[in-house]
UniProtKB/TrEMBL annotation:
EC number(s) given by UniProt: 3.5.1.18
Name recorded for this polypeptide: Probable succinyl-diaminopimelate desuccinylase
Organism: Actibacterium atlanticum
InterPro entries: ArgE/DapE, ArgE/DapE_CS, Bact_exopeptidase_dim_dom, Peptidase_M20, Peptidase_M20_dimer, Peptidase_M20A
Protein family per UniProt: Belongs to the peptidase M20A family.
MF annotations from Gene Ontology: metal ion binding; succinyl-diaminopimelate desuccinylase activity
Length: 426
């Protein structure tokens, strides 16, 4: 049940509804494509100017030396801080500003920020510029309604979440930006009535089979690495995929298919490199001496990363035992341990109370099938009191005609604003 102050805070959010829609649309119109990392400084400058006008002290931070940071594509982030009337706890909203490639199949301009039928459309609308806009409005509305609050509010807009977060939250955590923070909310699109406690683990690896080059008219003089890889893929279908289907978790992962271990063959490359699109000639007749696949293995909190890797090594050794001259190499690319915040953590309980007030229902507790920046706040920042909560339908992320609902943004902003009220007073 909302009291008079809760109602005042929610009214302050509603009064900013049009501003929230305009902010979301403006963010979408800055095409922060990753890779390679376009317009990062532009989006940070836009938000810095906006938040400075609202009284925040803003810091622009380049993740120098981080993966993918370069003179051509610098990895820019902002951290904005608003100090209350008295000392107290710090609540930090973290949103990533990068978006994935556009892809095909759009019926609207991917970077038009079009508003229609109660939705804002565009690449990143759902994942997660709608959530970023909602968190800004939540903070501004709360400050307006409760200027004498205790503690501080922080809003960060960070780079490269879509490619691991190393130029964004990981860098900030390494630099100590979360050392003083007490509560973190990441407004990822997990539905406005759900609290996301964490995510599965991930191991990315590159697996290469090796052969010997020869003339394509005399393949018997060479050793085809692509055929070797075919045997590997066949063995995966025969033994590894059925094994993964037997592994299930007690984590509340959504959707149901992600409650088991999964493996995606991300890409395959073998033989002669592809030529430029304007090349009109034929390929050279060669036996491929290299073939590579990239593995995207998602694992459960009940699994050990050493066992996950051993499954693939054991499989490769089985294939090697059956194929003369078979050679291979496995290279680790990226790994993240599963993360899950306790349901009785302060930020979980507070957001749950706010959801009950705004939506008049108890929240659902879920775990994300894929990782997001909670991994760095947990592992590097050593802060367990972190969740994902924000507007948007998860299934729309990375899809054509991506959108976020305006009512969902407003409701989520009210939840975040009431969370601030409970954690920071007055």
């Amino acid at each position: 049940m909302k009291d008079a102050l809760d109602i005042s805070i929610c009214d302050a959010v509603e009064a900013r509804r049009d501003d929230m829609v305009a902010l979301c649309a403006d963010l979408i119109r800055i095409p922060t494509l990753n890779p390679p990392g376009l317009n990062y400084r532009e989006v940070c400058s836009y938000l810095a100017e906006r938040l400075a006008k609202s009284g925040f002290k803003v810091e622009m931070i380049r993740a120098e030396g981080a993966p993918a940071d370069s003179a051509k594509h610098p990895r820019w982030n902002i951290v904005a801080r608003y100090a209350g009337a008295e000392a107290g706890e710090c609540v930090h909203f973290n949103g990533h500003h990068d978006v994935v490639e556009v892809g095909h199949g759009w019926s609207v301009d991917p970077f038009g920020g079009e508003v229609k039928d109660g939705r804002v459309y565009g690449r990143g609308a759902c994942d997660m510029k709608g959530g970023l806009a909602a968190s800004v409005i939540a903070a501004e509305a709360f400050i307006a309604a409760c200027p004498d609050f205790k503690g501080s509010i922080e809003i960060s807009a960070t780079a490269d979440e879509e490619s691991g977060g190393f130029g964004g939250v990981a860098y900030l955590a390494q630099q100590g930006y979360f050392d003083h923070v007490d509560h973190v909310i990441i407004p990822e699109p997990l539905h406005k009535d759900r609290i996301c406690l964490g995510h599965r683990g991930v191991w990315w690896a590159e697996l290469e089979t090796k052969g010997r080059i020869a003339h394509g008219s005399m393949p018997f003089l060479g050793d085809c690495a692509v055929r070797h890889m075919g045997a590997v893929l066949e063995e995966m279908e025969r033994t590894l995929f059925p094994l993964l289907a037997t592994k299930h978790t007690e984590m509340p992962v959504i959707p149901d298919g992600a409650k088991q271990s999964t493996l995606n063959i991300n890409s395959i490359h073998g033989g002669e490199a592809e030529q430029d699109p304007d090349y009109t000639g034929l390929p050279a007749p060669c036996v491929p001496d290299r073939c590579r696949i990239v593995l995207d293995r998602r694992f459960l909190i009940e699994e050990d990363i050493g066992d996950v890797k051993a499954e693939v090594t054991t499989l490769m050794e089985r294939v090697k035992a059956e194929r003369p001259s078979f050679e291979y190499e496995i290279r680790d690319l990226f790994e993240v341990q599963p993360s899950m915040t306790d349901r009785d953590a302060p930020v979980v309980q507070t957001v749950a109370h706010a959801i009950e007030k705004v939506l008049e229902k108890a929240p659902e507790y879920v775990v994300s099938p894929g990782t997001y920046d909670q991994k760095h706040i947990d592992r590097i920042g050593k802060l367990k009191n972190c969740i994902a909560y924000g507007p948007g339908v998860l299934d729309l992320a990375h899809q054509p005609d991506e959108w976020v609902g305006i009512d969902d943004m407003a409701d989520s902003a009210k939840v975040m604003a009431l969370t601030l009220r409970e954690l920071l007073g007055p």
